[in-house]
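user:
I keep going back and forth on a fold encoding question. Separate attempts, laid side by side, tell us more than any discussion would. Would you put together a sequence-and-structure record for a protein of your own picking? Write it directly below this note and I will take it from there.

assistant:
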Amino acid sequence: MAHRNSDNPNVQIRNRSESTSHLADQGTGFFQWGRDLGGTDSNHKFTEHEKDLLAQYQSADYLPPYSCAYKEWLRQQPARLDWDKWLMMGIIGFVVGITGFLMHQTIGVIADLKWDRAYEYVKERNFGMAWVWLALIGIGFAIISSLLVVLFHLPAGGSGMPELIGFLNGTLIRNVFGIKTAVIKFLSCVCAVGSGLPVGPEGPMIHLGALIGGGLSQAKSSILNCILPIFGRFRNPEDERNFISAGAGAGVSAAFGAPVGGLLFTMEEVSSFWSLKHGWMTFFCCMTSTFTTDLFNSAFQGFRYTGDFGAFKSRKYILFEVKKEISLNILAFIPSLIIGMIGGLLGALFTFLNLKIARSRRRLVGRFKSTWVKNLIRVSEVTLIMTLTATMSILLPGGFGCTPYQCQNVNTTANVYQGPLCRRGDQYKIHTENEVVGYTCPVGITKNVSSQVYFTNQTYNQVASLVSVQGEEAIHRLFSRQTYLQFDIGPLATVLVLYFTLACWTAGSAVSSGLVVPMLLVGALYGRLIGRLLVVMFGVHQTGKILKYYP
């Protein structure tokens, strides 16, 4: 696990120059077999620098205290029913839930501030001011996110997942658990995601959950120089590990609203030590976290009270909800296999390229001895990525025309369906067709035929509908039913290539960020692309017959 941490560009390297970590310094080629390219029978070949880096870490023992003094003290204690452990699990879940609520609300405020004003300029066709506004807000928050990491605490960069997994599997890693790490990671993640960088908050949220679990259970802080006179019996490696593990699961639950997912993630991905009792305690912690986040999110939107406190609406709390089932043919497994294989290939390509970028970044930074020059390079990289992202968001939709559509009620068959589905009134989140972005396209008019049927000649921009929102919202728009022609092949392929490249570059940069949402969006883009190709080739299969559509 220490090797996984060694690929993190934010790890401070000692004893040797950072430039020696790049594989080109070892006299090898870019595609050397056995380094990052090869099959299961090809072992990774560590460079001398990587071996030195691995030697800097120590292993940890998670055995419970078993000294004679401890056993004598234990015999003098009354029988325990572990009520205090359950209480601590509830406290951890509540605090992680509050943290998730604050993170989501703050990101929403920044995103609204950025996009609302930018598209006012776009509608006026003032693209220069739109780009300036979007770039200033995005670059400003991106720089703040990067400066927090490079100036105050480098270990707070990245997702924190490699360090967390390494610790829970027996590797001692310094400076990754503490109040300073938690504060910097929260602020950096909020600024990075809100700025519009192709990143997500889920990875840092998992690390924050682990930080909260470890900090609250130990009830002490070296930075604050205090030790609270409570929960003293939890100050041992075994209990600390268990609470950190539960906090990580609570972070997953708060990020995705999935307590079962948090439990499974902790059990399968990050923990090597497990017991049935710890599993139930972790599940309780995850449920508390999800409940707390959803409870407060039900009443606030961008920190504005909406009056729905305690109203749990599925369309709001189930991120990717399916409201309508469809009949399935066994032949559908064929494109599913194709999608799976493409996903595996893209994942391998992403990992390969990201490793090369990380080593190139480390080599470039290692060429300079001055700390401020190294920090300047790290911040400049984030600024460049954000500039390209802002440019893509504002100017790329202009390269694609407006798509007209005529909406009609789903029960009416008088006209052939040629665009997004329109429905009256509020819709479930799965139906996001009324939220497509017009960009500079004509608004059009709507004509009500009856209480059940109405038509409109509105137009929208397909690319703008994908690049002018946060990653989760873009996934919602891709993951919709009965909208077969809403996105064409060209826009999907263009956004896929550009977003994949920017996400691969951003991963490992000097900001606190995660990869879950970018990977979900990449998968949704190429999945929708495959589906669109199938519609072109075979039409749409509905109620026992195939309806052929011609755009």
Summary: Residues 150 and 376 are 9 Å apart (CA to CA). The mean pLDDT is 80. The first strand starts at residue 58 and ends at 59.
